[in-house]
Amino acid sequence: MLLPNVETMTAVLYFGLFAMSFDFISGYTGYLSFGHAVFYGTGAYVVILAANGKLPLVPHTTPFMLLLLLGGVFAVLLALGIGVVSFRLTGVYFAMITLGFSQVAYVLVRDWGYLASSPRDGPFVVGPEGAMAPVFSVGVPFVDSLALDIGVLTGDSVVLGPLSLGTTEVSFYMVGIVVLVCYLLLQRVIHSPFGRVLIAIRENEERARAVGYDTFRYKLIAFAISGFFAAIAGGLFAGFRRSASPDNAFFFLVTGDALLASIIGGFGTLAGPLYGRLLDETIREFLSKEGTGGGLLPYLREVLPESILTVDIAGLTVQGAIETFLNGHGSLYLGLLFIGFVLFVPGGVLGYVRERLGGTVAQRVASRIRGGD
After folding, report:
1. Minimal CA–CA distance to 248: which of 49, 8, 45, 31?
2. Cβ distance 43 to 37 under 8 Å?
3. DSSP 3-state assignment of 270?
4. pTM of the model
5. How far apart are the C-alpha atoms of 206 and 89, rounded to whole Å?
6. pLDDT tens profile 275-322
């Protein structure tokens, strides 16, 4: 009833990684990158174009894990180019110029016929002409026994004794492994001396510059790192969905969703955006008309007798009231929740939990172990 279905949970993972990459630059340096979708879309399009044989010097049989890295490299180069110009500005001007770069990329891919037969709809994985469309595997490249295919229709299924995992479940776990590795790498960067400088820039950039740090260089490197992991997330999205479009990869509202997840989950917490995205998808599916993730009305139809659902309240039946005021209005209630978090829980879900615990969960556990309680 409450959690989204497995297919949607897979989307929570790869988009959660994108939101984490957004939080890495925006939450830890204070520079809001409103055009971050350009890196997400770059990773997605690199994977699909390579699979379709449209990426020069890259065979369409290139392993998926290498394509993820290749998309990340493209995003790094793009981030360096955008960052060199954008970091000359601060505040709202930085946000607007990154948004401008993203919109330029959006218009370019939407109208470039080389990318797809219908560029406005975006490319699909069809393979080169005369060749089979490749499948995407997560694991060790060139070692089939240490890799599993992902995708709802093209993925592998696994049977281990009494445990049976379908293609969707296998995709969930394999995408989850990549997301976990990326999260741990980002955590390592945050807790390194480099990460401490980023926090110093967020708190007081002038002071960080005064003590001798080249803040421009630090911000540019952080932007490149953020773009790299955003492209990994986009590559996972394209690998699982086997398609992408300008609207779900490059459009500025994709960045808006990452911002929403970051604020709800906890700005500057890295893991918080993943929880924020989970809450986002949970509300949307719980109040969806179709009830694809369980949903409120399908659940009530199962547990409540027809006599209760047909009770008349002020001219509306119980079922009619649910369909009128709840089902299909997930975005409305998500917006209200967003306003509530901004006003009353500015630290987000994870920030609030850490505040109540007096530190991160890991710190509290370590403290209890050392204290023997």
Report:
1. 45
2. no
3. coil
4. 0.91
5. 14
6. 999 999 888 887 776 544 456 666 666 777 777 878 887 778 877 777
Q: What are phi and psi of 180, to 5 degrees?
A: -65, -45
Q: Could you report how far apart the first and last alpha carbons of the chain are, in Å?
A: 37
> Which tokens in the block code for residue 146?
């240490």
Please tell me the distance from the alpha carbon of residue 329 to that of residue 121, in angstroms, as a whole number.
Answer: 26
Listed residue (99, 242, 92) closest to 167, CA to CA: 242
Alpha-carbon span 15 to 44, nearest angstrom: 12
CA distance 163 to 146: 19
pLDDT of 229-243, one tens digit each?
A: 999 999 999 999 999
Residues 190 and 202: beta-carbon distance below 8 Å:
no
Determine the Cα–Cα distance for residues 236 and 330; give it in Å rounded to an integer: 26
- Any idea what the Cα angle at residue 165 is, between residues 163 and 171, rounded to 5°? 145
- Sequence letter at residue 322: I
Q: Comparing C-alpha atoms, which of 339, 263, 245 is closest to residue 41?
A: 245
Whether 21 contacts 229, CB under 8 Å? yes
What is the DSSP code string of 22-75? HHHHHHHH----TTTHHHHHHHHHHHHHHHTT-STT--TT--HHHHHHHHHHHH
CA distance 220 to 215: 8
Phi, then psi, of 350 in degrees rounded to 5: -70, -35
Separation CA 319–CA 326 (nearest Å): 10
Residue 181 in tokens? 């590795």
